[in-house]
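Record type: monomer structure entry
Structure origin: computed from sequence
Chain ID: A
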Amino acid sequence: MKNKLTALCVTFVICAGVFVGSIMPIYPFSQAPVSAQNYARQAMKWLRVTNEFRVSGIAAFTPTTEVLATTFTIPATTASALWLSSATTVTSDTTDAIADGRLDGQILLLKNINASDSIVIKNSANTDLGSGDVTLGATDQIMLVWDGTLWSKLFVADN
């Protein structure tokens, strides 16, 4: 019997900082699945990338804006890029500056979008920021990685 499957389409998506993807069969047009529902079900079978993942185009995180209170804990499970805003200069909680990550190796990009107010992220508060607290002024950014225990600083961009 002739194999009707001509190719395999792999689509990767960034979901809460984790690369996931779907695999779906691509049939010759004349042999397309009878039901669009069957095709959609195939497209929704998610998998985890466990080896190498290469992007030949542009990979981008869609930022979510988070308005911070005076003493705050940054939610780390809502997005991989958070644009932070506040009504005044604010300082993170001294126990948990950033909530636990979802997976080891999760990346988190934080950017202060305030024009004038600073955002202080405490060191040793579920964080390893190196030499001390990090103060994000207007448009400053920090990228961190979750190691299963702490958020470790990868870099700070002082703009």
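Annotation 1: The chain has two domains: 7-48, 64-157.
Annotation 2: The mean pLDDT is 77.
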